[in-house]
Amino acid sequence: MPSGRAPAVGHSVSQPAVTRTPMICRRAAPAFLRNVRALKHTAGAAMSSCQSPACLQKDMEIPGRQLFGPGPSNMRDVIADSQSRSLLGHLHPEFIKVMSDAREGLQYIFKTKNAYTFAVSGTGHAGMECAVLNLLEKDDVFLVVEIGIWGKRAADLGARIGAKVHTVTAPHGCAVEKEAIEEALAKYKPAVLFVCHGESSTGVCQPLVGLGEACRRHGTLLLVDTVASLGGAEFRMDDWGVDCVYSATQKVLNAPPGLAPISFSERAMQKIRNRKERVPSFYFDVLELGNYWGCDDQAKRYHHTAPISCVYALRAALAVIAKEGIDEGVRRHEENAKFLYEKLKEAGLECFVEKESTLVTFLLCKWIEVKRLCIRAEASYHHTAPISCVYALRAALAVIAKEGIDEGVRRHEENAKFLYEKLKEAGLECFVEKEKWRLPCLTTVKVPNGVDWKGVMDDMMKQGTEIAGGLGPTVGKLWRIGTFGGNSDKQKIENVVKLLAETIKKKSDI
Q1: Pairing between strand 116-121 and 259-264?
Q2: pLDDT in tens, 116-135
Q3: Is residue 25 in a domain?
Q4: Nearest-CA neighbor of 446 among 464, 417, 465, 470?
Q5: Which range of residues forms the domain containing residue 489?
Q6: What per-residue confidence (pLDDT) applies to 216?
Q7: Which of 20, 44, 167, 453 has the most neighbouring CB atoms within 10 Å?
Q8: pLDDT in tens, 160-200
Q9: Pairing, β 244-246 against β 259-264
Q10: pLDDT-based confidence at 450, cuts 50/70/90?
């Protein structure tokens, strides 16, 4: 049983040593390049010797299970159904509307009016990385409330980026008292305080009320992990003075893993905008991500391709919560948690967390076999994989294996040549002049002089077909036609080129 001893304050975390890989000297470069050329000559032979995996010739078998572990949770039917909707482009206006709906839903469940409220593409751990990388800089003081593995993980991440990390801890199964946290705030005066609200490794719910006010007295930002608690335990971002919160979709939301909801207060955004150095990650840069999600009033910039079907599922999950009401949902979790405690007691089982006030609505019990499983899993645990995405990956690989990788490559090359011919017949030119340098699955086409390149794309989109414009320095100079996988098909290619040519003519006649 966890003891009631006082939390330990002041444990420091040292930064791990970094192993550096020696650079290849300039003198060695020619030999290295010769090796690369030799590899190119042997690539064809190596490809043909690759055998199609026998396992992918069979249908994927996924057993139906009741998921009563610490996550992922079972998807509701309406959420599962949302993932089978037709894919849209990640910049299509219809998809942007879905993203906007999701933003409003996230503001609702976080109970915030923060403009910078969106979802990071990645699982819950991506939310942690995004928050820490944006809020902390090298030599910043980082105070971590450590009541389980997620506090340890946050401390490790802070040390990796060069922050001065200190922790305030409690025995497993206990929360840290508010007084101990305030004592540590006064002692270390950190730039950021990290608290895991629902510690899934122990089942503890760390109280948050009053911490936001305490952080403001010391000029500290409050960062909260609600991966395991959001929607199942009370959380009020604005009322409690939380500056940054992140969560995950695969717990109470009942959506598949793949997105990390996150929100930043204006105080947090001021720190991010006034950083001494740029955020050491483009992918997790909040200013870039926020622009992509429509959090600012600037023109949308391309950042990355969002996991589209996961955003559909997030929107569907938020709709379920909104229909019940976030407060009603929390009350239902609390009521059913008490029912669970009673049933466990009747079965002769004890809760690992002694105080009911610090229990999360799912809990770990003092059951030897369960504890053994947890220990075994912890040794290799890194993050929650995007499970339905892995299903899709496996299915996609099976399709490739049944055709054969070499046959698939040849099909793309053959159909690319067919596309070049059709473009030439339509009076259009490839942007890449030398055929040997052209990518077989994505062809760039020069925009003819005087043609409204964007108007052509818009008209084609209205007719249900997407092609893309240039990117960066090639904007306005070319169109991009992707013939990936199943779209590498002569009939489909002929249809696209015909529509492109007709649309160009129509726009030119106006």
Answers
A1: antiparallel
A2: 999 999 999 999 999 999 99
A3: no
A4: 470
A5: 404-509
A6: 98
A7: 167
A8: 999 999 999 998 888 999 999 999 999 999 999 999 999 88
A9: antiparallel
A10: very high
Identify which has the larger pLDDT, 34 or 155: 155
| Domain edge (last residue) among 270, 292, 321 | 321
| Sign, CA torsion 150/154/159/160 | positive
CATH number at 481 reads: 3.90.1150.10
Q: At what angle do helices 387-403 and 308-324 cross, to 10 degrees?
A: 150
Contacts 24+ apart (CB under 8 A), 446-453: 446/477, 446/478, 447/476, 447/477, 447/478, 447/479, 448/504, 450/508, 451/504, 451/507, 451/508, 452/507, 453/479
- Which H or E run includes 494? helix 490-509
DSSP code, position 61: -
Task: Kindly list the distances between the CA atom of residue 440 and the CA atoms of 32, 336, 484, in Å, as whole numbers in the listed order.
Answer: 27, 56, 9
How far from 250 is each of 32, 62, 64, 325, 374, CA to CA, in Å? Answer: 46, 18, 17, 19, 19
Residues 331 and 334: their CA atoms lie apart, in Å, by: 5
Residues 414 and 316 in one domain: no
**Angstrom distance (rounded) from CA 199 to CA 35:** 50
Q: Are residues 142 and 285 in the same domain?
A: yes
Residue where one domain finishes, among candidates 260, 287, 321:
321
Type of residue at 469: G
What pTM was estimated for this model as a whole? 0.79
Q: Do 307 and 411 have their domain in common?
A: no
Q: Is residue 267 located within the same domain as residue 152? A: yes
pLDDT band at 344 (very low <50, low <70, confident <90, very high): confident
SS3 270: helix
Backbone angles phi, psi at 24, to 5 degrees: -75, 125
Phi first, then psi, for residue 388 (nearest 5°) are -65, -25
Q: Burial code of 414-444, b = ≥16 C-beta within 10 A, e = fewer?
A: ebbebbbebbeeeebebbeeeeeebebbebb
On the question of a cis peptide bond just before residue 280, with omega within 30 degrees of 0, the verdict is: no
Residue labelled with tokens 């067919």: 418
Residues 455 and 312 in one domain: no
pLDDT of 281: 96
Distance CA 344, CA 341 (A): 5
Residues 6+ apart with CB under 8 A from 252: 73, 229, 230, 231, 232, 329, 333
Reported residue count of the chain is 510
Q: Can you give the CATH number for the domain in which 108 is found?
A: 3.40.640.10
